[in-house]
Design goal:
Helix content: 40-55%
Distance between the termini: 22 Å
Low-confidence stretches: none
Largest sheet: 8 strands, mixed
Number of strands: 8
Oligomer: single chain
CATH architecture of the largest domain: Alpha-Beta Complex
Length: about 325
């Protein structure tokens, strides 16, 4: 199969028929063999009924359903596990991503040899309250990941099949799939300017809190990408530094007291010196960091790295192993 389109969605019943018809028309015009996997993320409207109806009349339409809302990252993850196309394309269900971009994205993967191509919504129809934080987020992500993309959060992306089968997308990491791909060795990452459509139905499902969570996730990924396979190098280095620095400082305080006693002076109690408590706290923190490194190493070695996404139903698909 040429292409799998993965569409995570939450309460998008109005847009789904129009989106599928648009995708189908583009695929037929370009003679692509394809499948469209709708991942219903615990919608409370009629989205699942619409997907079932599409699947009943179109074998290319397939569906996965979560019992409750699990988040976009988990939706993409199970969609990736179920995908069979040589090229996997992701897009949002709100009609803001144009299926007309699919042929060029496919060409960039199959002909130009990119591992991953990310869309760039250069001209956006979003308010300033959304575009300004997005620019800051993208600048921070570029600096930390060393990947020169302008729009990490664009839902319209294309991947080699090997890429999506090699990564696990969890938590809120859908924003950082290029970073995840780079960390497992897929470094040929490209970008394409894509159309940004105005939302036709419904309302956005994301608030400003996603930018706060996004920066926290970025910090996590930055540390994990550098020390994820050797957490003791991170915790142990800082822990040992703090431990020995505090130990030397405490020894200095004790030695200074002995010196003053030798000079016939009354040095007072070490515990009367505020520096004693600062150095003692640093010593304890250093010890805790070293212990945290050991625990992280043990967890890493024994983790099965499996999550239960509680998929309840599928349409035209076997339930993927996740």
């Amino acid at each position: 199969m040429d292409i799998t389109v993965v569409v995570p969605l939450y309460n998008e019943e109005e847009s789904l028929p129009e989106l599928f018809d648009w995708i189908a028309r583009v695929m037929q015009e370009n003679n692509f063999s394809y499948e469209v996997i709708f991942v219903n993320d615990g919608s409370t409207d009629r989205s699942w009924e619409v997907i079932q109806k599409l699947a009943a009349s179109h074998p290319e339409a397939k569906g996965l359903r979560f019992r409750k809302n699990q988040g976009k990252s988990n939706g993409l993850n199970v969609g990736f596990k179920a995908a069979t196309g040589d090229v996997v394309i992701t897009m949002d269900a709100d009609l803001q991503d144009s299926p007309e971009e699919i042929p060029e994205l496919y060409k960039m993967i199959k002909t130009d040899g990119f591992d991953l191509v990310s869309g760039w919504k250069k001209k956006r129809f979003d308010p300033l309250s959304k575009t300004i934080p997005t620019k800051l987020f993208n600048a921070a992500t570029r600096r930390i990941s060393k990947i020169k993309l302008n729009d990490f959060n664009c839902g319209l992306k294309a991947y080699k099949k090997e890429v999506v089968k090699s990564i696990d997308v969890y938590g809120e990491m859908h924003r950082y799939i290029p970073f995840l791909a780079k960390n497992v060795g897929f470094t040929k990452i490209g970008e394409k300017v894509v159309q940004h459509q105005e939302r036709k139905y419904g309302v956005t499902k994301f608030g400003l809190d996603r930018f706060i969570n996004g920066f926290l996730d970025l910090a996590t990924l930055a540390v994990m990408s550098k020390f994820g396979r050797r957490p003791m190098h991170f915790f142990g280095t800082w822990g040992a530094f703090m431990f020995f620095l505090a130990l030397i400082a405490l020894a200095f305080l004790g030695g200074f007291k002995i010196y003053k006693m030798g000079m016939g002076e009354n040095p007072g109690l070490i515990t009367d010196d505020p520096l004693f408590y600062i150095f003692l706290t640093t010593l304890v923190l250093g010890t805790q960091l070293i212990l945290a490194g050991f625990l992280a190493e043990l967890t890493l070695r024994n983790s099965a790295k499996k999550q239960n996404y509680t998929l309840t139903e599928t349409v035209n698909l076997e339930q993927p192993e996740v």
